[in-house]
Amino acid sequence: MSNKIAIVTGGSRGLGKNTALHLATKGIDTILTYHSQQVEAEHAVAEIERLGARAVALRLDVADSANFSAFIEQVQLALQTHWQRDRFDFLVNNAGIGIHAAFAETTEKQFDLLMNVHFKGVFFLTQALLPLIADGGRIVNLSSGLARFALPGYAAYASMKGAIEVLTKYLAKELGPRGIAVNVVAPGAIETDFGGGAVRDNAQINAFIASQTALGRVGLPDDIGGVIASLLSEDNRWINAQRIEASGGMFL
Predict the structure, then answer these.
(1) Which of the residues 7, 27, 218, 231 has an alpha carbon 20 to 30 A from that of 85?
(2) Domain ranges of the chain
(3) Which residues are CB-neighbours of 247 under 8 A, at least 6 positions away?
(4) Is 157 labeled as catalytic in the residue annotation?
(5) Among 34, 154, 157, 170, which one carries the catalytic annotation?
């Protein structure tokens, strides 16, 4: 039986890469996307292959929906070339950027970029990929703990994530007839290079978050990749339209 195949956007680093590695340990192959870090993407592919799974890296700017049709053609070619298939099983909408700006100082340019990456891009990329997702497949969208609790400076970013959480319910409802389950994972603060790596590299921020987290530390990529991979396992096939926060219990 051939492996299941996942598309993980932003899979060359951070949570996306960690997710792809967790999937590989479960025998799931990956098409990962990268924006500009081709070398990092190639390294991620090599790591996945060392774990015994197959992987392909494709360039994609999730903010540029005009080029999604060209990306779909690349996906179709990759599926045929590497798997002799015309469908994939799982979509993980992970790609993202962080912009920290007070509400009063957020520019329209910053707002539009966050909108294009985190909401418009997810909306129309998922739409474009629908014909290639196998019936009975799964979609996992990435939100943020910031959609539940408010920290100054993330009004625009968190609003886009709130939109993703609502979209997830609608996708679950409308794709249900195809047997496709759709859930959202909302990470808390994680030690990655996201947003300039402040959570990882700023000792004061790190200590503050740890003090406000029930489990007493800041999250690591491994804390999230495993959750996403688990949601795509057969054990969790009956979980649908749910928001699953993986934050260690932040701000309870």
Answers:
(1) 231
(2) 5-246
(3) 145, 186, 187, 188, 189, 213, 219
(4) yes
(5) 157
